[in-house]
Amino acid sequence: MRVPLSWLREYVDLPATETGRDVQAKLISAGLEVETVEHLGADLKGPLVVGQVLTIEELEGFKKPIRFCTVNVGQANGTGEPQEIVCGARNFAVGDKVVVVLPGATLPGGFSISARKTYGKTSHGMICSGDELGMGDDGTHGIIVLPPETEVGKDAIELLELVDEVLDIAVTANRGDCLSIRGVARETAIAYGLPLRDPALLDVPAPNAYGYPVKIADPSGCDRFTARTVTGLSAEARSPIWLQRRLQKVGMRPISLAVDVTNYVMMELGQPLHAYDRSLVQGTIGVRRAQEGESIVTLDGTERKLHAEDLVITDERGPIGLAGVMGGANTEIADHGDAEKATSDVVIEAAHFDPVAIARTARRHKLSSEASRRFERGVDPQAAAAAAQRTVDLLVLLAGGTAEAGVTEISAPPVPHTITVAADHPDRVAGVAYGRETVVRRLQEVGCDVYGQDELIVTVPSWRPDLTDPNDLAEEVIRLEGYENLPSTLPRPPAGRGLTARQRLHRRVGRALAGAGYVEALNYPFVGEQVFDQLGLDADDPARRVVKLVNPLSDEEPALRTSLLPGLLGALRRNDGRGMHDLALFETGLVFHPQDEQRVAVNLPVDRRPSQDDLAALDAALPDQPRHVAAVLTGAREQAGWWGKGRPADWADAVESARTVAREAGAELGVRKGQYGPWHPGRCAELTVTVDGEERVVGHAGELHPRVLKALGLPARTCAMELDLDAVARVGDDTPQAPRISGFPVATQDVALVVDAFVPAADVEAALREGAGELLESIRLFDVYDNAEQLGEGRKSLAYALRFRAADRTLTVDEASAARDAAVALAGERVGAVLRS
Predict the structure, then answer these.
(1) What CATH code is assigned to 2-42+165-192?
(2) Is the pTM of this model over 0.85?
(3) Residue 4: pLDDT band by 50, 70, 90 thresholds?
(4) Which of 45, 62, 357, 438 has its CA 20 to 30 A from that of 120?
């Protein structure tokens, strides 16, 4: 919103010494965002005067038309003689009054004027256009032709109000009242503690039955409609200079007198208006929703197909305007300088429309206008009658029209909005003792009616629809008292309980994987369903059931992830493509699984703290969100160097990353051969935990399938692991255990067992652990041997180091050997293992 300081001073008696910068500081302190202060005419210096064209000589022989003019500038040139000026413009004639800048003057932009020879003549000054004077868009882009009654020799700087300061205010969506000079003047008056001359305080005649007929079919969309009629507008009447200049300063282009007046009143009072050519309106004016198949040609010349929710203004023919957005071309005000075509009778519309309906219509048709901007932010419904009266008064004054006695006003009974608030509520919100008197005074300054003592009953003014609850009132008090006056205080948070067990595990897992050489990569939780085909998941795989977003950030990824692998593998592919070929990445995060029963989320209340039942109902509507951990590897796992050869990452590293996670969760992780989705069927480990005596699959690890690598563009032999971290945590015991230090020596026994090649080492280890009993302290596989000549076809040797120790004595050789033999015996019984000779 652009606010000229000269216009603002009409309603607030600001001290003469106050500059735009001073007003800017005051308004910013009051909570308005004044972005800039534009100094119009700051570098303009006269003489700049009104002149009358006496003669025009057309100069020939040049590439463009050139005119040599003599102009009467009165005594402004010190001699009273006609001023000789060369000019290339052609939109003026002999006898016209124009703006003349004389030698010695300076125009905006630092352009100095002096007598100079051009086109074979000496030009003593310039005949000016609006652009050259920095007046903005006047719609002509030519020489300024002044009204015939303008006095020759008059100072044009004062006449055209070229020197002014304009405040540019970024009005927030809740402060629609500040999209008007009236609203900003009210804020300025409050900031300076000065009285406001409200331009909306007009004598308005009472509604009667003689006004133009109006019918509202949708009271929810239009709760107030005022119609006034003015007849006998002069065809020669043009907008006066002061009105044009004010429109230009606020960023609007002068068009015609009737249109300029409605725009002027809109900027002044904040109430959008529309003027219809009465001769083009057929029958009763109506307000209703659009019907299927209807269309309208708006004032911008575009035909628009109407939607059933669009609010339209109609006559007997159909739509004649998009309500609150833009009028229709079939009732447009005509102003062609032709007495036979010019509009002489107009119907003025001042209405109040539903903000949501106007906002949706404007966005649906991609048609934002000054009117729609105001309606969608909230317009004062009580100002409609005053705005209509102000428009009528200006048309009668400036166009010689006659106001008809008929006044149409259809409105719902006003229901003032009342808020009950404790008198000390602003004090408690701000942490400052304002006191009841200050609270009441500040609320009254913004237009509220306040009653009560300890508990205040506040009726908010019609121009502030954004004041809806006690906190809004507290904000008004705080901002007017000055945000800069709020003390700087540190909050006093209550003593917390620290991190939850889930949060602690999340951090421990991250630290453990980072310590093992993995780098954390955080990815967006969105996926496209085509990725499940690339991962080779079965058609009925539960991971294919996804939660889809109503408004996704990308149409290519409209669903929430059910696995961490798509994001991690995408990060690995990008980094590999950028030259980083040795990679080990991990991520811990939520995955999302839809509920079997579709539930709708409830709307939580805003006037009170939600109850536990409210929160439980909201949680019940959410998808299941377990936390997973995943890791991916490619390239070298151990680098080569002076210390020896390196080695590439393989499936065993992926399995070990899962074991690292399980150790942090205090869970025992089972590893067995498996086959699932993206993993190579011969190099895939199924990860399990035991729940109530039954093994439950909680993840997979191993080398990815070559088809998956090709589909995703990944390096060969890429490995991956994914684990349900919540499921692992539920069976784990992460209670810190102090290390057991024994004073007795350890007894070590090595065994080499020969088993069938297909027997998993994990099964052999489990049998040895169970058979050794409680004396076994640890077991470690240290060698795998598969020579067919020595062991036989399809056989392999597994060598284990068993460490035995007793807590209360030194073990004898016989005790250690007995425990070893028991372990070997059970392994032979379980998996057919025999001691290697």
Answers:
(1) 3.30.56.10
(2) no
(3) very high
(4) 45
